[in-house]
Design goal:
Elements lengths: L5 E8 L5 H7 L5 E6 L5 H8 L4 E7 L55 E4 L2 H14 L12 E7 L8 H14 L7 E3 L1 E8 L15 E7 L13 H19 L10 E7 L7 H11 L10 E7 L9 E5 L8 H17 L6 E4 L11 H7 L4 E5 L30 H6 L3 H20 L13 H12 L5 H6 L23 H14 L1 E3 L3 H5 L13 E5 L13 E5 L2 E6 L1 H4 L12 E3 L5 E7 L2 H27 L1 H4 L12
Parallel strand pairs: 1-2, 2-3, 3-4, 8-9, 8-10, 10-13, 11-12
Antiparallel strand pairs: 1-5, 5-19, 6-18, 7-9, 7-17, 11-13, 14-16, 15-16
Helix pairs in contact: 5-10, 5-11, 5-13, 7-10, 10-11
């Protein structure tokens, strides 16, 4: 948007024929279009982009979600930043073999020179429509008469052209200005990770120690800023991951396992693998406790909520499997996963050699070295998710349903079918990880808890500010619990999702220890704290029965944060094609207003009359001032006599 906002006469477009008025017939351009959500697609948007008769767009969210699907992402997500290229599996590069997101329109990657706002509130949409109907509806085949209803959108962005340009300008400002005007910021946050057996987070893991990495992404995206529900694209997988971590930690002999297991939650993966590329970079540069040599195998949970016939697909990399050693390890990994599903309501099937990996964090690790690994998804080829990276990837998309009339507390505890389904996946994954790590006992006792899963789904998808989340976080960050969950990575860190994944993981896998608040906040002062091996958190605790006060306690866990900032910004390689270079523009305000505008003729008449009044008042003031001695002289007293 321009610095003073963009203004136009409102026109409501509810069917494609209505576009003709905006694009050609309407006599009062530019127009501010109120667009029905079902028409928010590439074909319509490119028509609006190609004209100067449009000054802005307000999109009314479609309810229910568009049945044909809607994804503003690319048909080949994160293209160019995964493992496949002209030098590695060229037949798989650029989704030549499989188009993963066939409904992807690429709208998020188009440059529009007018502001686009989303209207989620039906009441706001109705107010605008009513103003349009009262003043702007064409009557009798001719244009409407003035005054007309207009709208102004304010969303001026300070950044310009590209990451290279805006970062260079910001860098120059920071170097030479006392009060620098930064125009854009890199997308950044933190990865969350923990280990089954504690390790020294400030040291280095023994080179002989093997570690299995379990990974998932925790961020999502949509066309609109700060609206990223990510139910299927992110939440279904990381909730399953968290449930599997809890189930494994409950096993009695985890401390005896030959291999350690690292639970990893990557941030910024939607934007060309920010989190995973940074962790690989840190491992290569010895800035992380693990090295790439320590990785025994890699298991990634991708989209897993929309399974067809309870089938989960195991994707592997056909290129690295050409190596006999890697093939043997991958074969063993697939067999263990398949055997772990026996007796469960989940069927694991192999995709086959001819298909590459789907978009996944595992690809960034494969770029560094041949690691045996598998990516678990609910799709064999194209995504089952028809709303990938969109505002419609909501709880309804993963079939979360609740009975009518439940209170918020009852809804939090109600175990949905979706929760039961994801708990089954978590159980299979946890049992397989136990076997991979060298566990010899029976795995029947390893069981994910559907009640935990349903609480997490409610908190991460419906209402963050709930009693369970309130009880497991620190008192000083309770402000993060907003009502509407969203999982965009952003530029201020950590974001709400990162904090909550951190504290949920600590709650599910940590131990309550008998420390005072002072000891918990300063564990280095306690001799037995093993500060290098554990993290300590003083959390709010639950409300006591019939009480308004909480019972806080200290949690000890192996949960840590590591930076999720693209190495491109550390290296100042802002045009990098190796690492993500996404930035977000700065702005001062985002707002809108509607009002009535008069005709140009009336505005000109008003201006002319105003100028005439101004000139007349100036002349009047001049003459009054010039004749002030006459107009305002004081008459002499007739009774006064002079001698």
């Amino acid at each position: 948007a321009s610095i003073s906002g963009d203004t136009g006469v409102i026109h409501v477009v509810e069917k494609e024929e209505d576009l003709n008025w905006v694009l050609a017939d309407g006599p009062h351009p530019p127009y501010m279009v109120l667009l029905d959500g079902n028409l928010f697609n590439r074909r319509v948007m490119l028509q609006l982009k190609g004209t100067s008769r449009v000054s802005g767009l307000a999109v009314a969210a479609a309810k229910p979600s568009p049945p044909q699907g809607f994804s503003p992402g690319l048909t080949c997500p994160n293209d160019g930043f995964g493992v496949y290229s002209e030098n590695y599996g060229p037949q798989f590069a650029h989704c030549n073999a499989t188009v993963w997101n066939p409904v992807g329109s690429g709208l998020s990657y188009e440059d529009f020179d007018f502001p686009i706002f989303l209207l989620e509130d039906a009441n706001e949409t109705q107010v605008i429509k009513q103003c349009y109907q009262d003043h702007n509806v064409p009557r009798g085949g001719s244009g409407p008469e003035y005054p007309l209803c207009a709208m102004q959108l304010f969303s001026h962005m300070h950044a310009v052209t590209s990451t290279v340009t805006c970062m260079r300008r910001s860098s120059l400002q920071s170097t030479f200005s006392i009060n620098p005007e930064v125009v854009c910021d890199p997308l950044l946050d933190y990865n969350v990770w923990s280990t089954l057996q504690p390790i020294n987070s400030s040291g280095k893991v023994n080179p002989e120690k093997e570690v299995i990495i379990v990974a998932t992404r925790i961020d999502s995206h949509s066309f609109f800023w700060n609206i990223a529900p990510g139910a299927e694209s992110a939440v279904s997988s990381f909730v399953t991951h968290l449930a599997a971590a809890e189930a494994l930690h409950k096993a009695s002999d985890v401390h005896l396992l030959r291999r350690n297991i690292m639970f990893t939650f990557f941030q910024g993966e939607t934007f060309d693998y920010i989190g995973s590329s940074r962790m690989v970079y840190d491992m290569e540069k010895d800035k992380f406790p693990l090295r790439l040599d320590n990785i025994h195998s890699f298991v990634e949970l991708n989209q897993v909520a929309l399974r067809s016939n309870s089938t989960l697909w195991m994707h592997t990399d056909p290129v690295s499997r050409m190596n006999e050693s890697v093939e043997a390890q991958v074969r063993s990994l697939l067999d263990i996963l398949s055997n772990s599903s026996v007796g469960a309501n989940v069927s694991l099937q192999e995709v086959g050699y001819s298909q590459p990996l789907p978009p996944s964090s595992f690809q960034r690790f494969l770029r560094a070295r041949h690691i045996p690994g598998v990516v678990l998804t609910d799709h064999r080829t194209a995504f089952q998710n028809r709303y990938y990276q969109s505002m419609y990837d909501t709880p309804e998309n993963i079939r979360m349903q609740y009975p009518q009339g439940l209170s918020p507390e009852e809804t939090l505890e109600y175990v949905t079918d979706t929760a039961k389904s994801l708990a089954e996946v978590a159980t299979v994954v946890a049992r397989a990880l136990y076997r991979l790590a060298g566990g010899a006992n029976t795995t029947s006792a390893i069981q994910a808890d559907p009640k935990t899963v349903t609480r997490m789904l409610y908190g991460f998808l419906i209402k963050m500010n709930n009693s369970w989340f309130q009880s497991i976080i620190k008192p000083d960050i309770k402000g993060i619990l907003g009502d509407v969950p969203q999982h965009y990575v952003a530029v201020s860190s950590p974001v709400n999702t990162t904090y909550l994944v951190q504290y949920v993981l600590a709650n599910l896998t940590g131990t309550v220890v008998n420390l005072t608040k002072e000891e918990c906040l300063n564990p280095e002062k306690t001799a037995s704290s093993e500060k290098e091996m554990y993290e300590y958190a003083w959390v709010q605790g639950s409300l006591g029965p019939n009480s308004t006060s909480r019972v806080p306690y200290c949690v000890r866990s192996t949960v840590h944060l590591s930076k999720a900032l693209s190495p491109a910004f550390e290296l100042r390689q802002w045009a990098s094609t190796e690492y993500s270079t996404w930035t977000e523009s700065r702005w001062k305000e985002i707002r809108a207003r509607i009002f009535l505008v008069a005709s140009k003729e009336l505005e000109i008449i008003t201006l002319v009359v105003g100028i005439a009044v101004l000139v007349f008042s100036l002349l009047a003031t001049y003459f009054i001032n010039a004749k002030a001695d006459i107009l305002f002289s004081v008459p002499q007293d007739p009774g006064a006599v002079a001698y």
